[in-house]
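Journal club side-thread
Mid-discussion, someone asked how the predicted structure for our own chain would compare to the paper's figures. Pasting it here so we can look after the session.
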Amino acid sequence: MTKTFSRKVVLRCFFSALFSIAVITANTWSVFGQCSSCPVAKANDPNATNQLAFPPGDVYVDIDVRIQGTDEARQIIAGIGSWNQRNQANGSGVNFIIGPPPQTGTYNVLHATNTTLTNPNGSVNHTTVARTVPNRFDNATSTLNDATIYFNTGGALADPDHPDTSGPYYDPTQSGYDSIFQKETEHETGHDMGLSDVDPTCQQSGQSVMNHAIVPGCPNDNCGAKPLTVSQCDSDAVSTVPNYQPQPNGGGNPPPTYGGNYDSGGGGGGCTDYYWVWYESYDGGQTWYETGQVDYAGCW
């Protein structure tokens, strides 16, 4: 059963920002005991370490120069393109632009590079396929402005429970190598759009890019745990991310207040006949609608 969430945000909680990871084992989440095969917003995941998400608007995708021009880069671009296509209809307003940001000014940026991840004790991390690390963010608003996707090409194993006999997870000699970076780009970008991993006990193969990747004996996800492109259930989950909900007053101040002939009845010359009429906007302040709420200044 898929748990649905209201598009109206009535409460937001904030947590410290750490990194998001895709691993073979992870904490599971449930909502009132229900298990979903689709991802949820990190805001609705009690195990999420943060609620960070890129804000609506442009995000530049800066691919490491050592990757540019390779088939890996092609896959990264395809994965970003899959999110761009879904973002046209999910209400996020996020638009990814391939290429580094302009040299002057401050921009939202997503970097992508290869590395060998390590564990806290310094040993090589064999279980993490890719990791997203936020570089610049605002925890108070859960806004992500700069992050890096690290593909663990030097450490991830196809069968991490048997490191002495396992081959690499990113294996150019095995099937699926022509799509694994696209899948992992989509997965990690999903974290940057505010999504959590799918509970591994509930995931259905091929349904969500937020599924876990490592299935023992399946390098390059050639068993098909993840779909090739962002799915409808992934896009629907993005629609529930608080960062992408319509904000009252367009995120700013309402139009000017109006005066009226209101008498609070308090007398004594300490009253005012001014009141405020409140408006809301769902298009960034271009169009305003009366909410029906009126606040009177009254007496003092």
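Post-session note: Confidence is low (pLDDT under 50) at residues 1-33, 250-270.
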